[in-house]
């Protein structure tokens, strides 16, 4: 067992696996789904899906509620929001290159206008 | 060894560890740093730091260049950009609650104005 020290550790660890990302992406589109419906598209057995759901649950990325024999899974997006907050500091790198691109486009446009006169 | 199938797997796996996140955060602030400078704040030995740098390098999150005996480490933010792109689909969840908050604030303001009349 890996020992996670911070909530972000758990969030990013939950997002490492493409099956878990696919489950989250589906819950984004469908609001809620039963475990068997979530498991259906994957070529893995139900216990493996259950393990993935445990990881997502531990990271606070889903909630599970039981009614009779059906377990309904829902997205809990807050940890993703926190992960995005952490990542936002890097945004300046690509917005900077977008700024440069915009400046270049404006310069080109101005040059074209000059030539036309 | 874990086998990562997709670039996003590697990016999120690199971000799981708080030491690696701290290294990336420092490279965001300082543009570039030598390995010994990067290792200085941590209570772990240099080989452990080197291992973390290998993981970051494999994920394409840093570049290393050597001049004489000094290795300079730089941030490569593109994979973080791609990870944020993946996360962006969840933004509507919190922007929705921000919309609700804005609507509530507007309603309160309108009520206050009415009372003043």
Task: Explain what you see.
- The structure is a homodimer of 117-residue chains.
- Chain A is an alpha+beta fold.
- The first copy, chain A, has 6 helices and 3 strands, in the order H-H-E-H-H-E-E-H-H.
- Chain A has helices spanning 7-15, 18-30, 35-39, 46-58, 78-87, 91-116, and strands at 32-34, 62-67, 70-75.
- The first copy, chain A, has a 3-stranded antiparallel β-sheet with strand order 1-3-2.
- In chain A, helix 1 packs antiparallel against helix 4 and helix 1 (7-15) packs across helix 5.
- Chain A is elongated, with a radius of gyration of 22 Å.
- At the A-B interface, helix 1, helix 2, helix 5 and helix 6 of A face helix 1, helix 2, helix 5 and helix 6 of B.
């Amino acid at each position: 067992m890996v020992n996670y020290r911070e909530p972000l550790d758990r969030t990013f660890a939950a997002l490492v696996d493409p099956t878990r990302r696919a489950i989250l992406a589906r819950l984004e589109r469908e609001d809620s789904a039963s475990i068997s419906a979530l498991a259906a598209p994957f070529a893995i057995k139900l216990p493996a899906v259950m393990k993935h759901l445990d990881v997502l649950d531990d990271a606070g990325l889903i909630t599970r509620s039981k009614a009779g024999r059906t377990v309904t899974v829902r997205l809990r997006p807050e940890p993703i929001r926190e992960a995005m907050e952490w990542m936002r500091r890097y945004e300046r790198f690509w917005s900077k290159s977008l700024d440069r691109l915009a400046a270049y486009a404006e310069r080109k446009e101005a040059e074209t206008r000059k030539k036309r006169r």
